[in-house]
Amino acid sequence: MHLRGLTIDEGIKQMTFYKRKGGAIVKEILLEAQKMAIEEHNVEYKSNLWIADAFPTRGYIIKGLRKHRGPRFGVIHYRYCHFFVRLIEGHPPKHYMAPEETGNEKMTEYIENLRKRKIWHGL
């Protein structure tokens, strides 16, 4: 689910209908970011924000041990991640992501690249 380029209200609405565990977590993060923008960064209207960036990064991985029967142990990995959200005040741009090229545009670009080829240091 791409959130970039959506208004904050639309992003929260999309995450409400995204029925996976991550959807609820991202919705909570968006609400927290909206609250932080109002309280700490003096944003006037809470719905006048749009999502410029929203991406996860890998956090710490802590290794633990689980005891099995007898002298055996198993390694458990406790994985964590960080989720970054950047909100910008104002209305989102009309086309945040460039529209996909049509087949004709791809074909003409490919042919142009073929015609630009050169053999360097050749005759």
Description:
- Helix 1 (8-16) runs antiparallel to helix 2 (21-40).
- Helices cover 34% and strands 29% of the residues.
- The chain starts with 7 loop residues before the first helix and ends in an 8-residue tail after the last helix.
- The radius of gyration is 24 Å and the shape is flat.
- The protein has 123 residues and is α+β, with helices and mostly antiparallel strands.
- The mean pLDDT is 93.
- It has helices at residues 8-16, 21-40, 103-115; strands at residues 49-67, 73-89.
- The protein is built from three helices and two strands.
- The protein has a two-stranded antiparallel ribbon.
Helical content class: 25-40%
Structural class: alpha+beta
**Overall residue-averaged pLDDT value:** 93
Alpha plus pi helix count: 3
**What composes the largest sheet?**
2 strands, antiparallel
Order of helices and strands: HHEEH
Q: How would you sum up the global shape? A: flat
Give the number of DSSP strands. Answer: 2
Poorly predicted residue ranges: none
Radius of gyration: 24 Å
SS strand fraction: 25-35%
The spatial strand order of the largest sheet comes to: 1-2
Termini distance?
53 Å
Describe the structure concisely for a colleague.
The chain is an alpha+beta fold and 123 residues long. The chain has three helices and two strands.
